[in-house]
Amino acid sequence: MKHCASLVIVALLCSSGLARADDGNNSTVENAGSGRIVGGYTVDIAAYPYTVVVTISTPNGAILCGGIIVASNKVLTAAHCLYRQSVSSVRLKCIIITVRAGSTLRTSGGSLMKYRRYVVHSQYNPSNFANDVAVITIRGKFDGRRNVGKIALQKTEPVISSVNPTACFVVGWGWINLNGQLADRLQRGNFVLMPQATCASRVPQVTSSTICAQSLQGDACRGDSGGPLVCNNRLYGIVSFGPRNCNGAIPDGFAKITAPSIRSFIRTNAGI
């Protein structure tokens, strides 16, 4: 275990605080791994108490993602944030996950929680981002903590219209520019939902477990993965993938909360 801890420290020093969680291919989209909402604006955590910073540390480095509180000790995030770490670190049992809740700041304030366990969707596909969801169980509970609270899940299949689009938003601490600078404070980007057929005609990775949204102001980028897509005060999706340059050129893809495969996974592993 001492050897494991040493590896983590060295990896963190070498990573310079920046790590990616993308699929490594040359497609027009990539996972929104380590970074801020490019072109967004600063907001206060008090209005988004369900949003958390998830930091995953392994012998290979540290990865920053977002997360969403959905129960007293449960956090949803993107499967791709944990998938490679699960594969590479499983034998060493050398993965450290922390969750920072209740703070507008990425690296300080609020409550820093340790994890008890995590589960990645067994049907997550890193090639097309299908079922890009994982559940983290923390030690202790979020209950009673300042600026911390859960968000309700969307229960029914959303009606998506291009004529009267549904307004949504994404929040996170991802890149603020393409130079890899992380946001120090929570950022928000505004989106509208896009019909599945329209999205699929522009983004080949879209599956039945994807919900798409087009950015209006600010696009999700590296480090925003695992964060919430919120519409009508409910969780509609989990940040999964988007345009490589985080410029809104194509729609962003989110793990769809109402997709049967995802809803069943959440019900089984988060108890809601």
Automatic annotation (TrEMBL):
UniProt entry tagged with the keyword Ion transport: no
UniProt keyword list: Digestion, Disulfide bond, Hydrolase, Protease, Serine protease
Pfam families (UniProt xref): Trypsin
BP terms from Gene Ontology: digestion; proteolysis
Subcellular location per the Swiss-Prot or TrEMBL entry: Secreted, Extracellular space
InterPro entries: Peptidase_S1 (IPR050430), Peptidase_S1_PA (IPR009003), Peptidase_S1_PA_chymotrypsin (IPR043504), Peptidase_S1A (IPR001314), Trypsin_dom (IPR001254), TRYPSIN_HIS (IPR018114), TRYPSIN_SER (IPR033116)
Identification of the protein by name: Uncharacterized protein
